Structure formats: structure tokens, C-alpha cells
Amino acid sequence: MATAVIGIMSMAAALGAPIQAVSADAVTRSADAASAAPGYPWSWPHTGPRLVIEPFRAPAHDYGPGHRGVDITAPIGTAVHAPAAGVVAFQGVVVDRPLLTIDHGSGYVSTFEPVASELSAGATVQAGDVIGMVDIGGHAPRGTMHIGVRVEGVYLNPHPLFGEIPRAILLPCCSD
């Protein structure tokens, strides 16, 4: 078992992936919040590969470090689709990145960046509607899109909203 854990940690370090312990309670909370979301399960926001470049990392407290969403591969110019019905709450540039925020009701709000859009606040969108295109700017690496989701102002891991719960996968480490 220790060899497998060391192998996973070595592989993650080699890939530049952060190592984070996630409690079973945190996964259950995210899954419970996701299944209560309007329109659950949500549609994936683009048709390309679902490769997560930077996973969700919950902060220890409201102002602590973390990654309050996921960064997924999405080449510049990729069409971005509304994951669930809602109303555009914000569309514009914040600091150096274009972003779009959708209020899905029942306290669920999603944000996509960098996403350039011609929609304006108050526009109604349905699940699957094109809401914009992946652009450049912001903290997410070029060719990726950041997806953040809040429920009543608290960020949660977006994966369970899409019917996907990230799980650890044990891979063979070494041969003797």
C-alpha cells in the first residue's frame, strides 16, 4: 500500500499536479449540493476533452489559499455552453480577464473565464445554449477555461454538478 501511495505521489509530482487530501465528508457535501442543483446533472460546458489541468482545492477558511473551481482544457475560440438554465448575472472584464456569470436559481451561480460573450446581464439562457467563446486572459493557463460554482456564496467542487465525482485511481507503481 505504501508503495502505491508513493508511486501516485511521484507521478503527480512529475506531472506538476498538486497533492491534496480530501475528506470523505467534503466529497459527500459536494455530491449532496450538486444533486440539489437546478437542472442536475448539468451539461459539460464544451464538447472537447474533459481534461482537468488544475483541480478544485477548497480553502481552509474564507480568505485562505485554494483553487475555487477547476481549470479544464479548452482551446481559444472553443464555444462555451450553459451547463444549466439560468439568467446571466454578469458579463464583462474583471482585471484582465473576460468572464460570464450565470445565476441558476436556488443559490447556484456559475462563472466561466476567460470567456468572451455578447450576452448581457439579464439574458435568459437554457442548458446547452452557446454563452460565449474561450478567450485569453486571467490566471488560468492559455488554452484552458476556469469553471467556478458557488452555492449561497460558498465555492464547491463543480465536478459533481456534471454527474462526475472525481475519484483517486490507483495505478501500478513499479515492477520488482
Automatic annotation (TrEMBL):
Q: Where is the signal peptide?
A: 1-23
Gene3D superfamilies listed in its UniProt record: Glucose Permease (Domain IIA)
MF terms from GO for this chain are:
metalloendopeptidase activity
Ranges where the M23ase beta-sheet core domain occurs: 66-158
Q: Tell me the superkingdom of the source.
A: Bacteria
Q: What UniProt keywords apply to this chain's record, in alphabetical order?
A: Signal
Q: What is the official name of this protein in its record?
A: Membrane proteins related to metalloendopeptidases
- Origin organism lineage: Bacteria, Bacillati, Actinomycetota, Actinomycetes, Micrococcales
